[in-house]
Amino acid sequence: MAHIEVAKERCKACELCTTACPFGLLRLSDDYNSAGDHYIVQDNPEKCIGCKLCAIQCPDTVIEVYK
Amino acid sequence: MEQKIYGLPEGMNDKKTSFCPGCSHMAAYRTIVESLNELNERDNAVIVRPIGCSLNADYSFDIHAIQSMHGRASAVATGVARMHPEKTVLAYQGDGDAHSIGIAECLYAANRGEKMTCIVINNSVYGMTGGQMSGTTLLGQRTTTGIREFDNQGAPIHVAEMIAQLEAPGYVARAALYTPKDIMQAKKFMVKALRCQKELGKYSYIELLSFCPTNWGVKPVDCIKYAQENVLPVYPVGELKTCF
To answer: Which residue of A24, B68, B126, B213 has the lowest C-beta tally within 10 Å?
Structure first.
Protein backbone atom coordinates (compact mmCIF):
# COMPACT_ATOMS: atom_id res chain seq x y z
CA MET A 1 0.00 0.00 0.00
CA ALA A 2 1.41 3.35 -1.03
CA HIS A 3 0.21 6.91 -1.10
CA ILE A 4 1.42 10.36 -2.11
CA GLU A 5 1.12 13.71 -0.40
CA VAL A 6 0.98 16.91 -2.45
CA ALA A 7 2.21 20.22 -1.00
CA LYS A 8 -0.60 22.03 -2.74
CA GLU A 9 0.60 25.54 -1.86
CA ARG A 10 3.84 24.97 -3.82
CA CYS A 11 2.24 23.30 -6.85
CA LYS A 12 2.48 25.46 -9.98
CA ALA A 13 0.12 23.39 -12.16
CA CYS A 14 2.69 22.49 -14.83
CA GLU A 15 1.07 19.02 -15.11
CA LEU A 16 4.38 17.29 -15.87
CA CYS A 17 3.64 14.64 -13.23
CA THR A 18 0.44 13.65 -15.06
CA THR A 19 2.62 12.44 -17.95
CA ALA A 20 4.84 10.41 -15.59
CA CYS A 21 2.20 8.34 -13.73
CA PRO A 22 2.00 4.91 -15.41
CA PHE A 23 -1.67 4.56 -14.38
CA GLY A 24 -2.75 8.13 -15.16
CA LEU A 25 -3.99 8.70 -11.62
CA LEU A 26 -3.00 12.35 -11.36
CA ARG A 27 -5.04 15.32 -12.56
CA LEU A 28 -5.48 19.01 -11.79
CA SER A 29 -7.99 19.92 -9.09
CA ASP A 30 -11.04 22.09 -9.64
CA ASP A 31 -10.01 24.05 -6.56
CA TYR A 32 -7.27 26.71 -6.32
CA ASN A 33 -4.38 27.30 -3.94
CA SER A 34 -3.48 30.71 -2.52
CA ALA A 35 -1.41 31.58 -5.61
CA GLY A 36 -4.47 31.02 -7.81
CA ASP A 37 -3.15 27.82 -9.40
CA HIS A 38 -4.95 24.52 -9.68
CA TYR A 39 -2.99 21.84 -7.83
CA ILE A 40 -2.46 18.14 -8.40
CA VAL A 41 -4.85 15.60 -6.92
CA GLN A 42 -4.84 11.82 -7.13
CA ASP A 43 -7.80 9.78 -8.34
CA ASN A 44 -8.21 6.21 -7.08
CA PRO A 45 -5.39 6.36 -4.49
CA GLU A 46 -5.71 2.60 -3.86
CA LYS A 47 -4.19 1.98 -7.32
CA CYS A 48 -0.95 3.85 -6.44
CA ILE A 49 2.04 1.48 -6.27
CA GLY A 50 4.58 4.03 -5.01
CA CYS A 51 6.84 3.97 -8.08
CA LYS A 52 8.09 7.56 -7.32
CA LEU A 53 8.01 8.55 -11.01
CA CYS A 54 5.66 11.52 -10.42
CA ALA A 55 7.86 12.80 -7.58
CA ILE A 56 11.04 12.48 -9.65
CA GLN A 57 9.40 14.23 -12.61
CA CYS A 58 8.08 17.13 -10.51
CA PRO A 59 10.66 19.94 -10.84
CA ASP A 60 9.64 21.53 -7.53
CA THR A 61 9.46 18.25 -5.57
CA VAL A 62 5.90 19.01 -4.53
CA ILE A 63 5.04 15.30 -4.23
CA GLU A 64 6.14 13.11 -1.33
CA VAL A 65 5.81 9.36 -1.71
CA TYR A 66 5.09 6.98 1.20
CA LYS A 67 5.28 3.22 0.90
CA MET B 1 3.90 1.03 8.53
CA GLU B 2 4.33 3.38 5.57
CA GLN B 3 7.63 5.20 5.32
CA LYS B 4 8.61 8.20 3.26
CA ILE B 5 10.53 6.90 0.25
CA TYR B 6 10.84 10.08 -1.78
CA GLY B 7 10.53 13.81 -1.16
CA LEU B 8 12.66 16.90 -0.72
CA PRO B 9 16.22 15.78 0.03
CA GLU B 10 18.04 16.91 3.15
CA GLY B 11 19.45 20.36 2.50
CA MET B 12 16.51 21.72 0.52
CA ASN B 13 13.66 23.63 2.10
CA ASP B 14 10.02 23.91 1.10
CA LYS B 15 10.02 27.59 0.16
CA LYS B 16 8.18 28.29 -3.05
CA THR B 17 10.62 29.40 -5.76
CA SER B 18 9.93 32.01 -8.42
CA PHE B 19 10.73 29.69 -11.34
CA CYS B 20 8.09 29.37 -14.06
CA PRO B 21 5.83 26.31 -13.98
CA GLY B 22 7.60 23.38 -15.65
CA CYS B 23 11.09 24.91 -15.40
CA SER B 24 13.81 22.27 -14.96
CA HIS B 25 16.09 24.36 -12.76
CA MET B 26 14.84 22.94 -9.48
CA ALA B 27 15.11 19.40 -10.86
CA ALA B 28 18.76 20.21 -11.60
CA TYR B 29 19.30 21.58 -8.10
CA ARG B 30 17.64 18.54 -6.57
CA THR B 31 19.95 16.30 -8.62
CA ILE B 32 22.96 18.25 -7.33
CA VAL B 33 21.83 18.18 -3.69
CA GLU B 34 20.99 14.45 -3.83
CA SER B 35 24.38 13.68 -5.40
CA LEU B 36 26.24 15.76 -2.82
CA ASN B 37 24.29 14.06 -0.02
CA GLU B 38 25.16 10.66 -1.47
CA LEU B 39 28.86 11.53 -1.41
CA ASN B 40 28.51 13.24 1.99
CA GLU B 41 30.00 16.42 0.52
CA ARG B 42 27.21 18.97 0.92
CA ASP B 43 28.80 20.85 3.82
CA ASN B 44 32.12 20.89 1.96
CA ALA B 45 30.72 22.22 -1.32
CA VAL B 46 30.84 25.73 -2.77
CA ILE B 47 28.54 26.60 -5.66
CA VAL B 48 29.26 29.59 -7.90
CA ARG B 49 26.29 31.03 -9.71
CA PRO B 50 26.44 33.75 -12.35
CA ILE B 51 23.59 35.98 -13.54
CA GLY B 52 20.69 34.01 -14.94
CA CYS B 53 17.61 32.11 -13.89
CA SER B 54 19.73 30.10 -11.45
CA LEU B 55 19.61 33.01 -9.00
CA ASN B 56 15.95 32.43 -8.32
CA ALA B 57 16.85 29.46 -6.13
CA ASP B 58 18.90 31.60 -3.74
CA TYR B 59 17.27 30.58 -0.47
CA SER B 60 15.92 27.15 -1.33
CA PHE B 61 18.94 24.99 -0.53
CA ASP B 62 21.73 24.75 1.98
CA ILE B 63 25.04 24.95 0.07
CA HIS B 64 27.67 27.69 0.35
CA ALA B 65 27.18 29.98 -2.63
CA ILE B 66 28.98 32.82 -4.39
CA GLN B 67 27.46 35.18 -6.92
CA SER B 68 29.60 36.02 -9.93
CA MET B 69 29.26 38.28 -12.95
CA HIS B 70 27.45 37.12 -16.06
CA GLY B 71 29.49 34.40 -17.76
CA ARG B 72 32.34 34.39 -15.24
CA ALA B 73 31.32 31.56 -12.91
CA SER B 74 34.12 29.28 -14.14
CA ALA B 75 36.68 32.04 -13.52
CA VAL B 76 35.44 32.65 -9.96
CA ALA B 77 35.26 28.89 -9.35
CA THR B 78 38.89 28.63 -10.50
CA GLY B 79 39.88 31.07 -7.76
CA VAL B 80 37.92 29.15 -5.12
CA ALA B 81 39.32 25.80 -6.28
CA ARG B 82 42.93 27.06 -6.16
CA MET B 83 42.55 28.68 -2.73
CA HIS B 84 40.61 25.76 -1.23
CA PRO B 85 41.71 22.56 -2.95
CA GLU B 86 39.86 20.45 -0.36
CA LYS B 87 36.44 21.91 -1.32
CA THR B 88 34.02 20.50 -3.87
CA VAL B 89 33.64 23.48 -6.21
CA LEU B 90 30.68 23.71 -8.56
CA ALA B 91 30.01 26.31 -11.25
CA TYR B 92 26.31 26.34 -12.04
CA GLN B 93 25.78 28.13 -15.34
CA GLY B 94 23.22 28.51 -18.08
CA ASP B 95 23.79 28.10 -21.79
CA GLY B 96 23.60 31.82 -22.50
CA ASP B 97 26.15 32.20 -19.76
CA ALA B 98 28.65 29.39 -20.31
CA HIS B 99 28.17 28.84 -24.05
CA SER B 100 27.73 32.42 -25.25
CA ILE B 101 28.93 35.25 -23.02
CA GLY B 102 31.37 33.25 -20.90
CA ILE B 103 32.56 30.67 -23.44
CA ALA B 104 36.18 31.79 -23.03
CA GLU B 105 36.13 31.35 -19.24
CA CYS B 106 34.30 28.03 -19.56
CA LEU B 107 36.65 26.55 -22.19
CA TYR B 108 39.88 27.80 -20.63
CA ALA B 109 38.94 26.55 -17.16
CA ALA B 110 38.41 23.16 -18.83
CA ASN B 111 41.68 23.43 -20.73
CA ARG B 112 43.60 24.22 -17.55
CA GLY B 113 41.95 21.24 -15.86
CA GLU B 114 40.88 23.11 -12.74
CA LYS B 115 39.65 20.96 -9.88
CA MET B 116 35.99 21.87 -10.25
CA THR B 117 32.74 20.69 -11.78
CA CYS B 118 31.02 22.87 -14.36
CA ILE B 119 27.28 22.27 -14.61
CA VAL B 120 25.57 23.88 -17.59
CA ILE B 121 21.80 24.07 -17.88
CA ASN B 122 21.14 24.12 -21.62
CA ASN B 123 17.64 25.27 -22.54
CA SER B 124 18.78 26.82 -25.84
CA VAL B 125 17.67 30.39 -25.01
CA TYR B 126 18.59 33.20 -22.64
CA GLY B 127 15.95 32.58 -19.98
CA MET B 128 16.07 35.39 -17.44
CA THR B 129 16.67 38.27 -19.82
CA GLY B 130 13.62 37.44 -21.92
CA GLY B 131 14.19 34.62 -24.41
CA GLN B 132 16.91 36.06 -26.65
CA MET B 133 18.90 33.83 -28.99
CA SER B 134 21.93 32.14 -27.44
CA GLY B 135 24.80 30.18 -28.95
CA THR B 136 22.91 26.92 -28.51
CA THR B 137 19.58 28.00 -30.04
CA LEU B 138 18.40 25.38 -32.52
CA LEU B 139 18.14 26.08 -36.25
CA GLY B 140 14.65 27.36 -37.01
CA GLN B 141 13.86 28.04 -33.36
CA ARG B 142 11.80 31.17 -32.74
CA THR B 143 13.26 33.53 -30.13
CA THR B 144 12.48 37.12 -29.17
CA THR B 145 15.46 38.32 -31.23
CA GLY B 146 14.63 36.36 -34.36
CA ILE B 147 14.58 32.91 -35.91
CA ARG B 148 17.95 31.17 -36.14
CA GLU B 149 19.16 30.53 -39.68
CA PHE B 150 22.38 28.81 -40.68
CA ASP B 151 23.39 31.57 -43.10
CA ASN B 152 23.05 34.35 -40.52
CA GLN B 153 23.91 32.88 -37.11
CA GLY B 154 25.51 29.52 -37.92
CA ALA B 155 24.70 26.14 -36.42
CA PRO B 156 24.18 25.63 -32.66
CA ILE B 157 27.48 25.29 -30.81
CA HIS B 158 28.40 21.97 -29.14
CA VAL B 159 30.56 22.93 -26.18
CA ALA B 160 30.46 19.49 -24.51
CA GLU B 161 32.06 17.93 -27.59
CA MET B 162 34.66 20.71 -27.68
CA ILE B 163 35.59 20.11 -24.03
CA ALA B 164 35.65 16.33 -24.51
CA GLN B 165 38.51 16.59 -27.00
CA LEU B 166 40.67 18.66 -24.64
CA GLU B 167 43.40 16.84 -22.75
CA ALA B 168 42.82 17.98 -19.15
CA PRO B 169 39.12 17.29 -18.35
CA GLY B 170 38.42 14.01 -16.60
CA TYR B 171 34.70 13.59 -17.07
CA VAL B 172 32.44 15.11 -19.74
CA ALA B 173 28.79 14.13 -20.15
CA ARG B 174 25.51 15.43 -21.43
CA ALA B 175 22.24 14.42 -19.78
CA ALA B 176 18.63 15.53 -20.07
CA LEU B 177 16.06 16.50 -17.44
CA TYR B 178 13.01 15.57 -19.51
CA THR B 179 11.47 12.33 -18.22
CA PRO B 180 12.00 10.52 -14.87
CA LYS B 181 14.35 8.13 -16.69
CA ASP B 182 16.44 11.03 -17.96
CA ILE B 183 16.55 12.63 -14.49
CA MET B 184 17.75 9.36 -12.92
CA GLN B 185 20.45 9.09 -15.61
CA ALA B 186 21.44 12.72 -14.96
CA LYS B 187 21.90 11.93 -11.28
CA LYS B 188 24.14 8.97 -12.14
CA PHE B 189 26.29 11.21 -14.33
CA MET B 190 26.35 13.92 -11.64
CA VAL B 191 27.68 11.50 -9.01
CA LYS B 192 30.39 10.36 -11.41
CA ALA B 193 31.34 13.97 -12.23
CA LEU B 194 31.64 14.88 -8.54
CA ARG B 195 33.62 11.71 -7.79
CA CYS B 196 36.00 12.48 -10.66
CA GLN B 197 36.59 15.93 -9.15
CA LYS B 198 36.92 14.69 -5.57
CA GLU B 199 38.88 11.47 -6.00
CA LEU B 200 41.02 12.23 -9.04
CA GLY B 201 41.23 16.04 -8.72
CA LYS B 202 40.23 16.58 -12.34
CA TYR B 203 37.87 18.91 -14.16
CA SER B 204 34.35 17.61 -14.77
CA TYR B 205 31.78 19.04 -17.12
CA ILE B 206 28.14 18.07 -17.23
CA GLU B 207 25.53 19.62 -19.50
CA LEU B 208 21.88 19.22 -18.52
CA LEU B 209 19.30 19.73 -21.27
CA SER B 210 16.25 21.39 -19.76
CA PHE B 211 12.86 22.91 -20.53
CA CYS B 212 12.07 26.58 -20.89
CA PRO B 213 8.29 26.53 -21.48
CA THR B 214 7.94 30.32 -21.20
CA ASN B 215 10.54 31.23 -23.79
CA TRP B 216 9.94 28.25 -26.08
CA GLY B 217 6.25 29.17 -26.12
CA VAL B 218 5.29 25.54 -25.44
CA LYS B 219 3.00 24.29 -22.67
CA PRO B 220 4.95 22.39 -19.97
CA VAL B 221 3.14 19.11 -20.74
CA ASP B 222 3.98 19.42 -24.45
CA CYS B 223 7.63 20.26 -23.70
CA ILE B 224 8.64 16.59 -23.36
CA LYS B 225 7.51 15.76 -26.89
CA TYR B 226 8.86 19.05 -28.28
CA ALA B 227 12.27 18.46 -26.69
CA GLN B 228 12.49 14.82 -27.75
CA GLU B 229 11.66 15.74 -31.34
CA ASN B 230 13.74 18.91 -31.65
CA VAL B 231 16.51 19.04 -29.04
CA LEU B 232 17.69 15.44 -28.60
CA PRO B 233 18.60 14.89 -32.29
CA VAL B 234 20.87 17.97 -32.13
CA TYR B 235 22.31 17.35 -28.65
CA PRO B 236 22.75 13.59 -28.14
CA VAL B 237 22.76 12.43 -24.52
CA GLY B 238 25.58 10.34 -23.07
CA GLU B 239 29.07 10.24 -21.61
CA LEU B 240 31.61 11.83 -23.94
CA LYS B 241 34.71 11.30 -21.80
CA THR B 242 35.05 9.29 -18.64
CA CYS B 243 37.82 8.58 -16.17
CA PHE B 244 36.36 5.51 -14.45
So the answer is: A24
